[in-house]
Structure formats: structure tokens, C-alpha cells
């Protein structure tokens, strides 16, 4: 059993509170990945599911700003859940967070859960106080007050109310940099099978190599990276022995190829 948290509330205060709350509710190891955007969260989510291979565990994902488009919701974007084999995933549904799950066909829909409706359903069953219910419904820190609790309720077998939500409604993010690793390799959301005959970046034609080790020293290229799920792996832009991100001035969100 494992618990993985993917969250943009990543300062030390927010991180330790989320880790402690999850550890106190589950007899499992807990891991945390702090991200800056829904695009990064989408990529990490895919890689976490690949790493788990669908074993028993929980992945909690929340990238849900309250400003801008987030204002249209009563208290942040709704959450939805699905299972990848024996791995329970609960995630915010707005933006790009579920875009990799959609692209890889991991699930076609998620079960959207409304916080007040869930609390109304679970209150008597779990003997929750009125004040705790109000706190969970109105909290500014749903990743701490709500997500680990609802995950525990689902794993305990409660059939909490939900509405089916098709991933056709989820935004796609084709042809962009989604993660930059510590070597400066730029991970994209382009699959090998989507590779065009000629790959170019900033007007420069890049050769394609199946493996990173085959790229000559100092040469820029596109390779099949390690990220993805199962047989579906994403392309990476690399410069052998150097940082592709620095050389091409790439950042997460930049369109490529």
C-alpha cells in the first residue's frame, strides 16, 4: 500500500501537514511531489501510475487555483476519482491535470464528487460533528481537510454519491514541454507514434534516436524518454551532456515540434 500526493501547495508548512494527515489515516508509506502547474501534475500523475503498475494505493492530486477560472466554483474546482487497477486516484478535474490520463486512455471518465453532498452522506455513518463538516466544506486547504478523508471513505467501501464525468471534457495539451528534469532534458507530451518524419525546434531540424545513449556528445536530438505508461512513452528533447532547456531556452508549457 502506498500514498502519493501531487500538489501545488508545496511549501514546507503545506507539505508536512499533508504528509502527516495522510500518514495518520493510512497504514502506508506516503510520498509527496510538489508541482508548479496542472501541466506538471498531469505528467507526474502518469508516471506515478506507471511506477505503481496499478498496485494497491492512493494518488491524491490537487492543482486548483481559486483565482481566474476557479472563481466559478463554490470553493475550488470539483474532484473526481477513478481506479487504475487497484490504485485509487482522486484529482481536481479542471485544466490539464487529467490530460495525460485522457491521452493514454487510462480511463474514459471519472466520478465527480461534490463535497457538501459527500459530507451529508457520510456525516452519520462516520459520526462527524457539525463543526467538522462545516470546516471540511468551507476549508481553503481541501488537500489537507478533505482529500485524504474521502480517499479513506472510498477505500472503506462507502458508495459515496457521484456524477459520471467524461474525459472528453478535459482539455488536451498537445506538443508542449511538460517537465524539465535536473539534466535539462525536456519531456514532452508527444508519443513516439505521433512523431513526424522531420522534427524541428526553433527552426533547427533535430535528428531522432531511439535511445539517449546513441546521441553523440554535444548533439541536440529527440529521443524516446522514460516517461509514460506501459508501452506508450513520450518523446524528450535532449542535448547530450548539456541542458536542452538552457540551450533552446525552453520552459514548461512551451510548444515544441
UniProtKB/TrEMBL annotation:
Residues 175-256 form the S-adenosyl-l-methionine hydroxide adenosyltransferase C-terminal domain. Gene3D superfamilies: Bacterial fluorinating enzyme like (2.40.30.90). This is S-adenosyl-l-methionine hydroxide adenosyltransferase C-terminal domain-containing protein. The lineage of its organism: Bacteria, Candidatus Magasanikiibacteriota.
Amino acid at each position: 500500500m502506498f500514498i502519493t500526493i501531487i500538489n501545488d501547495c508545496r511549501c514546507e508548512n503545506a507539505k508536512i501537514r499533508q504528509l502527516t494527515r495522510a500518514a495518520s489515516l493510512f497504514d502506508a508509506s506516503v510520498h509527496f511531489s510538489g508541482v508548479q502547474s496542472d501541466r506538471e501534475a498531469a505528467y507526474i500523475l502518469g508516471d506515478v501510475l506507471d511506477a505503481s503498475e496499478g498496485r494497491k494505493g492512493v494518488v491524491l492530486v490537487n492543482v486548483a487555483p481559486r483565482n481566474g477560472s476557479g472563481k466559478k466554483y463554490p470553493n475550488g474546482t470539483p474532484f473526481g476519482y477513478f481506479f487504475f487497477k487497484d490504485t485509487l486516484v482522486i484529482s481536481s478535474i479542471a485544466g490539464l491535470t487529467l490530460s495525460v490520463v485522457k491521452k493514454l486512455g487510462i480511463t474514459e471518465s471519472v466520478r465527480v464528487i461534490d463535497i457538501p453532498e459527500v459530507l451529508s452522506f457520510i456525516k452519520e455513518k462516520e459520526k462527524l460533528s457539525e463543526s467538522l463538516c462545516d470546516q471540511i466544506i468551507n476549508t481553503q486547504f481541501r488537500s489537507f481537510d478533505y482529500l485524504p478523508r474521502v480517499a479513506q471513505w472510498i477505500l472503506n467501501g462507502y458508495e459515496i454519491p457521484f456524477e459520471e464525468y467524461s474525459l472528453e471534457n478535459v482539455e488536451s495539451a498537445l506538443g508542449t514541454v511538460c517537465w524539465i528534469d535536473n539534466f535539462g532534458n525536456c519531456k514532452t507530451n508527444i508519443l513516439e507514434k505521433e512523431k513526424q518524419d522531420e522534427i524541428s525546434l526553433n527552426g533547427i531540424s533535430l535528428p531522432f534516436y531511439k535511445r539517449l545513449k546513441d546521441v553523440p556528445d554535444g548533439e541536440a536530438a529527440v529521443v524516446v524518454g522514460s516517461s509514460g505508461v506501459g508501452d506508450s512513452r513520450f518523446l524528450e528533447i535532449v542535448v547530450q551532456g548539456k541542458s536542452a532547456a538552457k540551450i533552446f531556452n525552453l520552459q514548461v508549457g512551451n510548444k515544441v515540434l
